[in-house]
Hints:
Elements: H1 5-12, E1 17-20, E2 23-25, H2 37-48, H3 53-56, E3 57-58, E4 70-71, H4 80-97, H5 106-116, H6 130-143, E5 147-150, H7 168-171, E6 173-179, E7 183-194, E8 201-204, E9 219-223, E10 230-234, H8 247-252, E11 256-267, E12 271-274, H9 277-285, H10 289-318, H11 325-350, E13 353-355, E14 361-363, H12 366-391, H13 411-418, H14 425-439, H15 442-453, H16 458-467, H17 471-479
Parallel strand pairs: 1-10, 5-8
Antiparallel strand pairs: 1-2, 3-4, 6-7, 7-11, 8-9, 9-12, 10-11, 13-14
Bound molecules: flavin-adenine dinucleotide.
Amino acid sequence: MIRTGRQYLDEISDDRxxxxxxxxxxxxxxTKAFRRALAFASLYDQAAxxxxxxxxxxxxxxxGVPPEPEFKAFRPCxxxxxxxxxxxxxxxxxxxxxxxxxxxPDYIAAGMSGFAAAPDxxxxxxxxxxxxxxxxxxxxxxxxxFISFTLTNIKRDRSKPLSEQPGAETNIGVRxxxxxxxxxxxxxxxGVGTAAIYSDEIIVGSIEPLHPSDKAYALTFCVRPATPGxxxxxxxxxxxxxxxxxxLSAAFDENDAIxxxxxxxxxxxxxxxxxxxxxxxxxxxxxxxYACMAHQASIRFYKKLxxxxxxxxxxxxxxxxxxxxEVRGSLGRxxxxxxxxxxxxxxxxxxxxxxxxxxxxxTPNRHATYAQRIFAAEVYPKFIHELRMFCxxxxxxxxxxxxxxxxxxxxxxxxxxxxxxxxxxxxxxRLLKLVWDVTSTEFGAxxxxxxxxxxxxxxxxxxxxxxxxRLEELARFANKALKKE
Length: 485
Ligand SMILES: Cc1cc2nc3c(=O)[nH]c(=O)nc-3n(C[C@H](O)[C@H](O)[C@H](O)COP(=O)(O)OP(=O)(O)OC[C@H]3O[C@@H](n4cnc5c(N)ncnc54)[C@H](O)[C@@H]3O)c2cc1C
């Protein structure tokens, strides 16, 4: 269905329990600190707009009567044309947020398309969730739902599996505490859930391998945030910032929260893996889900770098420093990195892979999308560093507010400090406030952290690169130089 922002806001105005410090928030859509639900609402409106609709929606061949268009991100790609088409969808929303909304609804929708393409991964020795997956995917597609996920387990003692962690019985990991014919009751805690407070449903699972003794924690399910027994504990909010002084904080704080569950009921039809350690983490890697999400991630990342490179150029121009050779060199490096980021996304599409199985689908190249994580985590801090270098000390002299330029007592002094040969003083301060928001506010720092961790910790993804199957091929190539005539 074509979902409007209003429909989305109405549907998340439910009884979900969200804590912000000492405050139990009544409704996420009516609380100032969480007003960024509006950012997601405007994405739905953008997609619903007749001018852009074809980028986001298509009517499937097997649609009912009357035929309902479906959000394309949920659809497994059948060929490279559809993959390129998905690129346009991801890119359109990334442009709207300049890459500062990591979890636009297409991110996990793309992951669901990867699940749907590999239903056999959802059948284990004692639990067959293939039909659950099928109906879950259909429900999400038909209602165009915004899904978030929490997949990280807390580590208290790294030498022990989850089941042997101190306090494991009470509040670490998420496990089924009892079963009935209708479903399971779950309790426990999960790490960061980005945009969970704004989502229609949350997928709870484990992406990292589980110890064979962790059967109780080996489960994946999908839950509505308003389910009794579910609580979300938010980090501090950045969205109360003044839009003039911190435009990105005010517009694009997507929120992160801890998920806490106590005796929350999950019907069987919402369970995707159960008491099986192998399939619980395996569904993220043996299906195209991760590569499909990484597709969005790689597009968002190059859009963000293009924005930052453009911002850097505006700063250099306003500082009148473009003619300095070192400055030009640094700027050139940023433009080059932005181009490389785009090339990774395009290269992954060009070298796409066909996932085998009954629902054969095309996915971006796994090696390229996995490698993108290293590139993103290492390059993002360089952009932040260069932006600071281009600005110099001016960044720290920013007035409290742009309206200070109008104050009779200090306005003229501020103007004479901020004016350059190239730029009006107020516009220059406005520009540098934007840079400060990227580099130095809580919002900016959170983004630097996001780019380094949201795709996993380095020791995990670097290790994965050695396991992803290319090392032997590379060694064979190197060995050729050792062969005698
Ligand atoms: C902004 C943000 C948003 C996120 N959003 C989500 C989300 O929506 N959903 C979700 O499921 N997750 C999310 N995450 C969580 C993210 O996936 C995890 O932070 C990431 O997987 C790393 O796990 P961890 O935090 O438990 O790190 P840990 O495993 O605790 O690792 C932390 C650090 O400890 C050290 N370390 C630990 N073990 C080793 C080892 N064996 N070898 C070497 N060094 C080691 C390393 O320095 C490592 O960087 C988000 C994270 C951030 C920062």
